[in-house]
Amino acid sequence: MSDLAAALDEAFRTATPIPQPEYGFDPYETQRELIDLRLARGERLTGVKLGFTSEGKRRQMGVHDLILGRLTDAMCIGEGASADVSGFIHPRVEPEVVYLVGRRIESMADAFAPGAVAAVAPGIELIDSRYQDFRFSLDSVIADNTSAAAYVIGPWRAYDPAEWNLGVLFEIDGRPVQVGSTGAILGDPRRAIAEAARLAQATGQVIEPGAILLAGAATPAEPLRPGAHVRVEIQRLGSASFTAAASTAEGT
Ligand code: 0L1
Ligand code: MG
């Protein structure tokens, strides 16, 4: 177990951010160690997420590639639920397209095979960097499991690849805070399964049938305030929502 994985796990468990490390760690290996600690505490893997799926965000953060993170059942907030967010440090929320993986994905070829995506849903991702001030490099955010913290999934519907460029309305407390299009995800969210396959193969992971894939944010993220009601509506797909029930560690 590396020092960085242990420090990130403690930062997560105590909601106390740490300075980002500068060198001397393997990003995806540290992420795996971090997730193994959670699995050893009884959590179960539920899927993966892509990050930095918009060129604008990559430019803003000065990074050059997408990143892949892992999701567990403990990160799942029920659709429409009231969720205790006191264990998060400085959480942000963003609208996501969620895919249900329909077959075992080990290589790019699997991603293009029939049935690779079985269903699609509107979703919300809650990201929370375990680093001070939400500051990180590409490598350090990978080690921090790509800031993955929680997710909400709305109703599933059958996947129709023709429906890829859909309007997105992102509301907090009933007011629109962002509007956008799912086309902002990789220029075409249908690319998400192939990009996830590429990164999974490169990092020695297999995406199992039944896994979920958070394909990426369709708009910029917004800070999550205590008491906020967060709702995402995606044209034709429906909506996902939750309410933040308590203060976060930084009281934001
Ligand atoms: O899900 C995302 O796109 C976020 C990836 C990590 C970067 C961040 O924390 O903003
Ligand atoms: Mg995201």
Relative helix content: 10-25%
User: Could you tell me which ligands this complex binds, including any ions or cofactors?
Assistant: hexanedioic acid, magnesium ion
Radius of gyration based on Cα positions: 17 Å
CATH superfamily: Fumarylacetoacetase-like, C-terminal domain
Q: Name the average pLDDT.
A: 94
CATH fold call: Fumarylacetoacetate hydrolase, domain 2
Overall spatial form: globular
- The helix count comes to 6
Name of the CATH architecture: Alpha-Beta Complex
Strand-and-helix sequence, N→C? HHEHEEEEHEHEEEEHEEEE
Structural class: alpha+beta
- Sheet with most strands: 9 strands, mixed
Count of DSSP E strands?
A: 14
Low-confidence stretches: none
Count of the domains: 1
Secondary structure elements and pairings:
Elements: H1 3-14, H2 27-40, E1 45-51, H3 55-61, E2 67-72, E3 76-77, E4 82-83, E5 92-101, H4 108-112, E6 117-127, H5 138-143, E7 148-153, E8 157-158, E9 167-172, E10 175-181, H6 192-202, E11 212-217, E12 222-223, E13 229-234, E14 238-244
Parallel strand pairs: 1-11, 3-7, 4-14
Antiparallel strand pairs: 1-2, 5-6, 5-11, 5-12, 6-7, 6-8, 9-10, 9-13, 13-14
The chain binds hexanedioic acid and magnesium ion (MG).
Provide structural commentary.
The chain is α+β, with helices and mostly antiparallel strands. The chain has a single domain (3-244), classed as Fumarylacetoacetate hydrolase, domain 2, CATH 3.90.850. 22% of the residues lie in helices and 32% in strands. The chain contains six helices and 14 strands. It has helices at 3-14, 27-40, 55-61, 108-112, 138-143, 192-202, and strands at 45-51, 67-72, 76-77, 82-83, 92-101, 117-127, 148-153, 157-158, 167-172, 175-181, 212-217, 222-223, 229-234, 238-244. The strands form two sheets. Strands 1, 2, 3, 5, 6, 7, 8, 11 and 12 form a nine-stranded mixed β-sheet that branches. The protein has a five-stranded mixed β-sheet with strand order 4-14-13-9-10, with no helix packed on it. Strand 13 and strand 14 (238-244) form a beta hairpin. Helix 1 (3-14) crosses helix 2. The longest helix has 14 residues, at 27-40. It is globular, with a radius of gyration of 17 Å. The two termini are 32 Å apart. The mean pLDDT is 94. The structure holds hexanedioic acid and magnesium ion.
